[in-house]
């Protein structure tokens, strides 16, 4: 049941520290700090030169996050919408790994793309939450995210766990294919280990509820981010529209000035996600919106320069650039949740949506 919570979504948001701890448990070798994804003996990903990640919706945002983590680790990777794959699949060859990312493992679009990749001769792997799901059975390999059951239609904890597992997997693939772990692994693992407790701290604050109330009734809600902050901006907007029924859009920070700025008014709050990747540029992009009267809410660590510039801020604990966006995402989940609650929406079962989409 929902226990002390009014909705499964809120319960599942609060389960994230546990879900993440479960996801990483036993998957990092404490003796040498190496990533020991137990199902994949060392060398499993030897020769992988090229990764295609296929997914839909929130899982696509996790896939995009994973593709950027792979790129940053030096592996060629592209995230693709599974429902576009049948008409726009890039070629696969012997050194291509296709990763299907699906919480349920039952999404028809994703299964159909997975089957197409298999037929084209790719090695396949699925990242899923559901043991025994169709995607888990059909892919060559499976990485379970171990997030526990997710009842709310809006995916929350599974996004975080998928993104974290893809970040670890990116490091493993890079290590196997190059013979040594990427240099940034040393800073990532300690920060990953403290992420559950950092999330507990973040979840104990009520700043997101205050922000939701302050900007209630706005015309549109915009979310911007750069690098790993970009999938977070997309996810922030998807969650917001899905459960509040209000208009929201996510943009790459630098894209705002290439068109969307025409929509910006004092009635369109802009949430700016700072992940430590060229933050000064993102801040400038946010200021361009602010000049047009839009309130800017910075999602960033305390003491960040954006705090002085922005109208409001949502604090995230200090961490590695590779994880900052995931902490920011939890603040945005809370904003969406509280905004939907103020509007009295059926948060766990938004209209027209189903937990698992089994038609193409
Ligand atoms: C949004 C949401 C959907 C799913 C999408 C894929 O909150 O839950 O966008 O992410 O339908 O579902 P899975 O991950 O089960 O393949």
Automatic annotation (TrEMBL):
It catalyses: D-fructose 6-phosphate + L-glutamine = D-glucosamine 6-phosphate + L-glutamate. Keywords: Aminotransferase, Cytoplasm, Glutamine amidotransferase, Repeat, Transferase. Its main location: cytoplasm. It is an enzyme of class 2 (transferase). GO terms for molecular function: carbohydrate derivative binding; glutamine-fructose-6-phosphate transaminase (isomerizing) activity. Signal peptide: none annotated. The active site is at 355 (for fru-6p isomerization activity). Its EC number is 2.6.1.16. One of its GO terms (cellular component) is cytoplasm. It is found in: Cytoplasm. Residues 36-180, 211-350 form the SIS domain. One of its GO terms (biological process) is UDP-N-acetylglucosamine metabolic process. Catalyzes the first step in hexosamine metabolism, converting fructose-6P into glucosamine-6P using glutamine as a nitrogen source. Homodimer. This is Glutamine--fructose-6-phosphate aminotransferase [isomerizing]. It comes from Natrialba chahannaoensis JCM 10990.
């Amino acid at each position: 049941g929902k226990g002390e919570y009014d909705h499964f979504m809120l319960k599942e948001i609060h389960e994230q520290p546990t879900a993440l701890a479960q996801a990483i448990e036993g998957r990092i070798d404490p003796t040498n700090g190496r990533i020991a994804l137990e199902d994949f003996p060392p060398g499993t990903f030897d020769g992988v030169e090229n990764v295609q990640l296929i997914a839909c919706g929130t899982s696509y945002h996790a896939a995009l996050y994973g593709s950027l983590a792979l790129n940053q680790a030096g592996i060629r990777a592209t995230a693709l919408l599974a429902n576009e794959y049948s008409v726009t699949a890039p070629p696969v060859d012997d050194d291509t790994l296709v990763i299907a990312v699906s919480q349920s493992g039952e999404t028809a679009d994703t299964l159909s793309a997975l089957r197409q990749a298999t037929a084209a001769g790719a090695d396949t792997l699925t990242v899923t939450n559901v043991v025994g799901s169709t995607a888990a059975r059909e892919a060559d390999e499976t990485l379970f995210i171990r997030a526990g059951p997710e009842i709310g239609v809006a995916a929350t904890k599974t996004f975080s766990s998928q993104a974290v597992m893809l970040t670890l997997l990116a490091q493993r693939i890079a290590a196997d294919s190059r013979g040594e772990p990427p240099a940034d692994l040393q800073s990532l693992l300690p920060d990953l280990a403290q992420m559950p407790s950092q999330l507990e701290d973040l979840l104990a604050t009520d700043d997101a509820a205050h922000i939701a109330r302050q900007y209630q009734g706005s015309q549109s809600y915009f979310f911007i981010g750069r690098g790993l902050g970009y999938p977070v901006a997309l996810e922030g907007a998807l969650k917001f529209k899905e459960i509040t029924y209000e208009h929201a859009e996510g943009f790459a920070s630098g894209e705002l000035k290439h068109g969307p700025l025409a929509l910006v008014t004092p009635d369109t709050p802009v949430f700016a996600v700072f992940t430590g990747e060229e933050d000064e540029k993102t801040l400038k992009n946010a200021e361009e919106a602010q000049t047009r009267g839009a309130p800017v809410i910075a999602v960033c660590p305390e003491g960040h320069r954006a705090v002085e510039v922005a109208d409001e801020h949502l604090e995230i604990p200090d961490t590695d650039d590779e994880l900052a966006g995931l902490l920011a995402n939890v603040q945005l989940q809370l904003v969406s949740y509280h905004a939907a609650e103020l509007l009295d929406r059926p948060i766990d079962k938004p209209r027209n949506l189903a937990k698992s989409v089994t038609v193409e």
